[in-house]
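REQUEST FORM: STRUCTURE PREDICTION
Request ID: SP-0412
Submitted by: Lab K.M.
Chain count: 1
Length (residues): 323
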Amino acid sequence: MNTKQIFSSLLFLLSILVLIPWFIATSGRWDLYYTLTSVALLAIASAGVWLTFYIGRINIGQGAFALLGGYITAILITKAHFSFWIALPLSGIGAALISVLIGLPILRLRGVYFAMITLVLTEVGRLSALALPITNGAKGISNIPLPGKVSLFGIPIIPDFATLENPRIGFYFLAVCLMILCFAVVFRLVHSRLGHLCRSMQQNEELTASIGVNIAYIRIIIYALCSFMGGIGGSIFAVMSQSIYPSSFQVADSINFMLNCFLGGLGYVFGPMLGTVVLYFGWDLLFQTGKYQMLIYSSLLILCMLILPNGLLSLRLPGRKNS
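STATUS: Completed
RESULT:
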């Protein structure tokens, strides 16, 4: 990273970790914590979808893994009495393992067939949650306890969320810190040898395979990492809401994860983050237009993709990719 990138990163960290909490405290808009936490969780899931785009695959099934992560956490906490801090990584790992089982056969298919199959995954996940006894059917799982205290050598590291005057503050810092970590990992991956192989697969899979690269193996790794991010996002969402239902993540959510990547820019690591912010708040602003909301929303998206095919970040960083 050059000096300008380091300065931009520090400014971003200062904004979300200091300036935004200060603004919320002075304005009294405590509801913004829930909104911004939701944006951070959506950005994490969208970053995973961006990774599948990076290997030349269209993923329209991330909502299934977010739903899976939420249910794994809810079941582990309410039925097995696990700590949230143990259930959180287990939810991501569980989602990743399921994605490997699903991805082994379908990732060998050409891109269009992979996209068609992932399109039904979210609905399959929803119907499974409705049918399985362990998920409690349509009633879902509610009254999920808030995260407890974490201590290291007797020194409290993370407070008990239930004792906080406003637990949303705790969820905000948890979500944004994980979002920062998630995008740092993606940035590092893109600029690693594996990232260069992924880029070559995106351009020409046959040529990449001809030099001895196991492209099926790389696809599985990337898809598992993508699903891990979805599972993590769904896990935190379930505990923040203290409930999870089959309708918590639907096909529309999976499509939005994909649109976040398109809107921000597929050629930029931080495209999903910007796309999530613009899409989330843009939809809320258009709520004022009433019955014309969907018409204006879809028209603006189509117009943006026609005028800015490389996403919103191409306005600020012309000619630069994967940064």
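NOTES: Residues 29-250 form one domain.
Reviewed by: T.R.
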